[in-house]
């Protein structure tokens, strides 16, 4: 440790001591204080660091270690624990705090156990060290995505228990495996299970994303992900010959048609007419053509086959048949010797055939309670957004259950899946207070009749 670090730490300690009295009584405002101040808060940060140190990154996430740690925390709070295993070696931990009226639909707080891998050589602190620098930044893979919310849920529940809170509706917390690899063995199996049905979930909070401003972000839908593979065939020929309809020439037509469409969508975003999440994105992810040779490719032969792959993302309200028609007629017409596969990666409609969207207006009473609880906590909300990527919330929306993506991280750069992912201690602590407000409001919410109507509609 360098001398300057010692000095910085000593100063920090002095500020802790100085602020201890003021911080203890601080309200639940979204504007985070400069320094954590109480021993209670220091313990919360330590538990966050402990969880961050469990190596949950793919390809070999330590699910057993994570579940064991979280179960011990849940027991210390007084929550019921149940470990489910829909796929061997991939446990799902479910915590429950039963409400006084078991007939009411319950609240589910969801978080995934796994993380994406990290490349330690690109990090300023080792990605599983949970190093906290003098400015309070806690560096770790998963600090934002999404181990922060896991501990924030638990700490909020710990506080609610400690202050004698008694929920009207049951509160469940799920820690699920495999979100980062699509959730097929995780949440997809959970929502299809009898155990899930019995929970009678009415509303879900799942992960969101950091906000670089002082406004909290909330997500009401995920874009729908597809893989598009276009195959072209054509007559092979000598490299010197000019002729129509070679495989690569056919595929270039496809590439040009896709590029024109992509430009039309991107122009709308660049002109500020639409947000990035409101348009269809198409990006080329691979091109495959040519005849391999020991030193590279055969250079005097025009290949008879060529292939391109695209990542396609649709807003959830978009009609997939319209996209299919465009592919058949413009991008990969059979008349030009092209075929295609449009591979759906997850649900596209809910069990009632409706788009996977959670209403963020008065038609959804949970939204009103959510919005009000944020405001009571002193938080400001940005306009609700569609998440560009995907989360497990899509499986819950698939069941017709309203679900919002929300991770309370204001004034924080978006570093999920990036090098040097971090979360500031004060932002982490403030998130606990926001969840305390949210959980107490959402689990005390009484308007049974409105909710029953929603469920009847389903
Ligand atoms: Zn995540």
CATH architecture of the largest domain: 3-Layer(aba) Sandwich
Major sheet characteristics: 6 strands, mixed
Task: Give average pLDDT, whole number.
Answer: 91
Bound molecule types: zinc ion
Tally of helical segments: 12
Low-confidence stretches: 1-31, 449-458
CATH 4th-level superfamily of the largest domain: Zn peptidases
What is the C-alpha radius of gyration, as a whole number of Å?
A: 25 Å
Class of the largest domain, according to the CATH hierarchy?
Alpha Beta
Distance between the termini: 60 Å
Produce the secondary structure layout:
Layout: H1 3-24, H2 39-52, H3 63-77, E1 80-87, E2 90-97, E3 106-112, E4 131-132, E5 137-139, H4 147-162, E6 171-176, H5 187-191, H6 194-199, E7 201-206, E8 219-222, E9 224-233, E10 237-238, H7 247-270, E11 281-289, E12 292-293, E13 296-297, E14 301-302, E15 305-314, H8 320-331, E16 338-344, H9 365-376, E17 385-387, H10 393-398, E18 403-405, E19 422-424, H11 425-443, H12 448-457
Parallel strand pairs: 3-6, 3-7, 7-18, 8-17
Antiparallel strand pairs: 1-2, 2-6, 4-5, 5-19, 9-15, 9-16, 10-14, 11-15, 12-13
Helix pairs in contact: 2-4, 4-11, 9-11
Bound molecules: zinc ion.
Residues 112, 145-146, 179, 207 line the site of zinc ion (ZN).
Cofactor: Zn(2+)
Enzyme class: hydrolase
Active site: 114, 179 (proton acceptor)
């Amino acid at each position: 440790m360098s001398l300057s670090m010692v000095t910085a730490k000593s100063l920090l300690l002095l500020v802790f001591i100085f602020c201890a009295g003021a911080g203890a009584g601080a309200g639940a405002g979204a504007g985070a204080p400069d320094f954590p101040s109480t021993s209670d808060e220091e313990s919360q940060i330590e538990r966050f660091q402990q969880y961050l140190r469990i190596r949950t990154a793919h390809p070999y996430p330590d699910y057993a270690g994570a579940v064991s740690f979280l179960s011990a925390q849940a027991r210390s709070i007084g929550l019921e624990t149940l470990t489910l295993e829909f796929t061997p070696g991939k446990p799902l931990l479910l915590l429950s705090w039963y409400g006084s009226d078991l007939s009411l639909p319950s609240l589910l707080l969801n978080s995934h156990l796994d993380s994406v891998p990290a490349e330690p050589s690109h990090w300023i602190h080792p990605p599983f060290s949970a190093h906290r620098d003098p400015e309070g930044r806690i560096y770790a893979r998963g600090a934002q995505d999404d181990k922060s919310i896991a501990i924030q849920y638990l700490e909020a529940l710990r506080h609610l228990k400690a202050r004698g809170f008694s929920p009207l509706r049951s509160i469940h917390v799920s820690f699920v495996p495999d979100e980062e690899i699509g959730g097929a063995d995780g949440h997809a199996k959970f929502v299809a299970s009898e155990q899930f049905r019995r929970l009678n979930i009415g509303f879900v909070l799942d992960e969101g994303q950091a906000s670089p401003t002082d406004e909290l972000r909330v997500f009401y839908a995920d874009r729908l992900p597809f893989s598009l593979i276009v195959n072209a065939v054509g007559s092979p020929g000598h490299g010197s010959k000019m002729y129509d309809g070679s495989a690569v020439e056919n595929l270039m037509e496809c590439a040009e048609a896709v590029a024109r469409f992509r430009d039309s969508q991107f122009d709308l975003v660049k002109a500020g007419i639409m947000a990035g999440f409101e348009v269809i994105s198409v990006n080329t992810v691979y091109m495959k053509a040519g005849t391999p040779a020991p030193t590279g490719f055969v250079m005097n032969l025009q290949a008879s086959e060529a292939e391109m792959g695209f990542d396609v993302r649709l807003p959830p309200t978009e009609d997939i048949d319209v996209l299919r028609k465009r592919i058949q007629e413009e991008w990969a017409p059979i008349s030009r010797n092209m075929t295609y596969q449009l591979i759906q990666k997850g649900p596209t409609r809910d069990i009632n055939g409706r788009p996977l969207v959670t209403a963020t207006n008065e038609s959804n009473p949970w939204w009103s309670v959510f919005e009000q609880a944020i405001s009571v906590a002193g938080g400001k909300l940005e306009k609700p957004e569609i998440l560009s990527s995907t989360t497990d919330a899509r499986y819950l929306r698939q069941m017709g259950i309203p679900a919002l993506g929300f991770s309370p991280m204001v004034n924080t750069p978006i570093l999920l899946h990036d090098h040097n992912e971090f979360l500031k201690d004060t932002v982490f602590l403030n998130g606990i207070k926001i969840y305390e407000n949210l959980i107490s409001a959402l689990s005390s919410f009484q308007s049974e009749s409105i909710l029953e109507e929603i469920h009847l509609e389903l």
